[in-house]
Amino acid sequence: MIKLVNMLVRDDDYTHEEFVERWRGSHAELARELPGLVKYATSVPTDPERSEYDGIVELYFEDMAALKAAFDSEVGQRVNADAAAFTDMERGPTLYVEETVHLDRS
User: Fold this and answer.
1) Kind of pairing between the strands at 55-61 and 39-43
2) How crowded is residue 27: how many other Cβ atoms within 10 Å of its Cβ?
3) What percent of the chain is predicted at pLDDT more than 70?
4) Residue 101: pLDDT above 90?
5) Distance in angstroms (rounded) separating the CA atoms of residues 55 and 48
6) Residue 37: what pLDDT?
7) Where are the beta strands (DSSP E) in the chain?
């Protein structure tokens, strides 16, 4: 399983609250349509004034080929274009990782 982790920074035209509303609202509806997406999670800081990032997104795919195919698709292009409308795409780092779960009591 491959996980894309992106630390997001909002565009200067948005407050943190406006960013979260857009991100978890209409953008999430669109992102859920990504082909091959296995799991999709978002996290927001509990104290955004003291955080360097406005949110963290985690997208899970079976492998890198599935991730690439998802973002090469029409939906993937729309997801990226929509994200660029309310996030500063250059400021937050992106990681591609293989997750190892050592404990899960959920």
Assistant:
1) antiparallel
2) 20
3) 100
4) no
5) 9
6) 98
7) 2-8, 39-43, 55-61, 94-98
Phi-psi region of 36 (alpha: psi -120 to 50; beta: other; left: phi over 0): left
Contact call for residues 94 and 3 (beta carbons, < 8 A)? no
3-state secondary structure of 55: strand
Domain 2-98, CATH number (from 3.40.50.11540, 3.30.70.100, 3.20.20.70, 2.60.120.700): 3.30.70.100
Please work out, in degrees rounded to the nearest 5, the angle formed at the alpha carbon of residue 1 by the alpha carbons of 101 and 75. Answer: 130
Q: What does the pLDDT average to over 40-52?
A: 95
Question: CA 23, 25, 31: angle at the middle one, nearest 5?
Answer: 70
Inform me whether the pLDDT recorded for 58 exceeds 90. yes
- The rounded distance, in Å, linking the Cα atoms of 88 and 22 is 14
Whole-angstrom Cα distance, residue 46 to residue 27? 21
